[in-house]
Amino acid sequence: MVNILVVVDMQNDFIDGVLGTKEAVAILPKVEEKIKNFNGEVFFTRDTHFDNYMETQEGRKLPVPHCIKGTNGWEIADVLKKYCKTEPIDKITFGSMELPKLLMDIEANKKIDSITLIGLCTDICVISNAMVIKAFLPEVEIKIDASCCAGVTPESHNIALEAMKTCQITIENQ
Q1: pTM of this prediction?
Q2: Is the pLDDT of residue 71 over 90?
């Protein structure tokens, strides 16, 4: 049995860049501590956009270019990079299409006890990835460490946590 930690989009643009918040900055030390003390495998996701961002549906609905591949804003926070044992999973959508495939491969070989998600933003990419993982691995316990997540706003963070709780995702440290 193995435990998995998924660190969602802990990138400069979401922490203190164009879409950063004081809540995102505040969780950074907690995220590092969680990763450092985690007993299991750790994977990072990385929101990835391109120069045509403003021409995409997301760009039209959120007209703030961010996480453009190759920019500083796209990079994982410097303090966390040393914990990236594998290349982050680039995702062009809120929920990763590659992450569930990776997790299903792990589950097929050594059974996953639990998958914990932390990171940014609770109300967009954390909830999206939690729901995608839950759909592919319905019998694996999915957890969210709320103290290591931040949303677009504190209110939307809490709404997302409640929505995930309703979908039988375990919310810790709320």
Answers
A1: 0.97
A2: yes
CB-based burial, 24-46: b 16+ in 10 Å, e otherwise: beebbebbbebbeebeebbbbbb
Please check whether residue 120 is in contact with residue 111, taking contact to mean a CB–CB distance below 8 angstroms.
no
Per-residue pLDDT band for 174 (boundaries 50, 70, 90) equals confident
**pLDDT tens per residue across span 96-149:** 999 999 999 999 999 999 999 999 999 999 999 999 999 999 999 999 999 999
Kind and range of the H or E run holding 89 = strand 89-91
Question: H/E element holding 41?
Answer: strand 41-47
The residues, ordered by sequence, that sit 6+ positions from 20 with a Cβ below 8 Å of its Cβ are 12, 13, 14
Gap between the Cα atoms of 130 and 9, Å rounded: 13
Q: Give the span between the Cα atoms of 8 and 118, in whole angstroms.
A: 6
Closest CA to 23 of 148, 116, 145, 129: 148
